[in-house]
Design brief:
Chain lengths: 79, 268
C-alpha cells in the first residue's frame, strides 16, 4: 500500500456523511499530503473518490482490502 | 475548532458544498447576526440563520405575540400568545439548534439604544425586519455610521423589496429613499394587509444575503433593489447608484446624530 500522511475510516457512516467525514479529514491536511480513506463497497466507492476529484484532489491508488472494504489514497490538491 | 459527530451530520449538506465546506461552516458558527424585528420578515430570517448554524443571533423586539401575528410570523406558535416575541423566538431557536446562542433585546430600537445593541456583541451583519419607516432609516443611519453591513426589506400586500448595504460597496438606504414619507402618506393599520408568505419570501432572501456575506461568496444585492410582485410572480432588479451628497454615506456627511422620526404606531 501507498504511504500516507492521514487516515480516516468512513465505513461507520452512510451517505451523505461518508463524504462529509472524509472531507473534514482532508481539510485538516496540508496541500500535497496523502490521505487514506477506508470505505465500503457500493455507494461510497462509487461516489467518494469522484467527489474528491471534483474538488481538485488526486486519487492516486485504490486498494481492495480482504474484508471487502477499499482503501483509497488521495493527494490533496493533486489535480 | 473541531466538529462533533452531531455537527458533522447537522451541517453535512452545507459542508458538501465547495463554497461552504468545513471552513465556511466554522465561519458561520463563529458569526453574529442581529435581527431587528421578529415579525413577518425577522421570523423566517431568524429560523433559517439558526438552522444554518449562525453561532450568535440577536433578536430585538418590544412586542408580545398576538393571535393576528401567527398568519405570517412563523417563529411563534399559538401557545406563545401573550409572550414577548424575543422570548418566543429564542425558545424556537433553542429547540431547533442548540449550537446557537440567542441574545434578546426586549425593546424598540431608537437613537438612544441602537448603537449599544449593535455594539453589544459587535454583530457582523444586521437584518432590518422592521415594519416602519422611522426604524428603517434609523437602522440605515446607525449601520452606516458604525460601518456595518445590513439587509433592508419591506413587505406590503403582495409586494416586497430588498437591498443590501455593505460599507464602501454601493448606496445606502438613504441614498435611494432620502427621507421617510410624510406620516399621512403611510397606509394606516386597516389598509396595511399583507399576504403571509411575503415575509417568508423576502425574509429568506435576507437570510441568504447574510449567509453569503458571512461566507464571502456570490454577488450581494448591493447597488441593486430586488422587487418581488407575488400576484404576477415576478422578480425584477433595479440598479441603484450611490449619492455623492448623501447626508449619511456621501462625501461630506452631515448626519452625525441619529434621528427618531415620528410615525403613528402601526402593527404590520
Ligand atoms: Zn447613502
Amino acid at each position: 500500500m501507498h504511504n500516507r500522511d492521514g487516515f480516516v475510516d468512513i465505513t461507520d457512516v452512510v451517505c451523505p456523511i461518508t463524504f462529509v467525514k472524509a472531507k473534514i479529514a482532508m481539510e485538516e491536511m496540508e496541500s500535497g499530503k496523502i490521505l487514506e480513506v477506508k470505505m465500503n463497497d457500493g455507494e461510497p466507492i462509487q461516489n467518494v473518490p469522484r467527489s474528491f476529484k471534483d474538488e481538485g484532489h488526486k486519487v492516486i491508488q485504490v486498494v481492495k482490502n480482504e474484508d471487502g472494504t477499499y482503501s483509497v489514497f488521495i493527494e490533496k490538491d493533486g489535480l | 475548532m473541531k466538529f462533533s459527530q452531531e455537527q458533522m451530520e447537522r451541517y453535512s449538506r452545507h459542508i458538501i458544498l465547495n463554497e461552504v465546506g468545513v471552513k465556511g461552516q466554522i465561519k458561520l458558527l463563529e458569526s453574529k447576526v442581529l435581527i431587528i424585528g421578529t415579525g413577518g420578515l425577522g421570523a423566517p430570517a431568524a429560523m433559517y440563520l439558526a438552522a444554518a448554524g449562525v453561532g450568535t443571533i440577536g433578536l430585538v423586539d418590544a412586542d408580545t405575540v398576538e393571535l393576528s401575528n401567527l398568519q405570517r410570523q412563523i417563529i411563534h406558535s399559538t401557545k406563545d400568545v401573550g409572550k414577548p416575541k424575543v422570548i418566543s423566538g429564542k425558545e424556537t431557536i433553542n429547540d431547533m439548534n442548540p449550537d446557537v446562542k440567542v441574545m434578546t433585546y426586549h425593546e424598540w430600537v431608537s437613537s438612544a439604544n441602537i448603537t449599544d445593541i449593535i455594539k453589544d456583541q459587535d454583530y457582523d451583519f444586521i437584518i432590518d425586519g422592521t415594519d416602519n419607516f422611522p426604524a428603517k432609516f434609523l437602522i440605515n443611519d446607525a449601520c452606516v455610521l458604525l460601518h456595518k453591513p445590513f439587509s433592508h426589506a419591506g413587505i406590503i400586500r403582495f409586494s416586497g423589496q430588498t437591498m443590501t448595504y455593505v460599507p464602501g460597496q454601493g448606496p445606502c438606504y438613504r441614498c435611494v429613499f432620502l427621507n421617510p414619507p410624510a406620516p399621512d402618506l403611510v397606509p394606516s393599520c386597516k389598509e396595511a394587509g399583507v399576504l403571509g408568505v411575503m415575509g417568508g419570501i423576502m425574509g429568506t432572501i435576507q437570510a441568504s444575503e447574510a449567509i453569503k456575506y458571512l461566507l464571502g461568496i456570490g454577488d450581494l444585492l448591493t447597488g441593486r433593489l430586488l422587487v418581488f410582485e407575488a400576484l404576477d410572480m415576478e422578480f425584477r432588479t433595479v440598479k441603484l447608484a450611490s449619492r455623492t451628497n448623501c447626508v449619511v454615506c456621501g462625501e461630506n456627511p452631515t448626519l452625525k446624530d441619529l434621528i427618531d422620526y415620528e410615525q403613528r404606531a402601526c402593527e404590520l
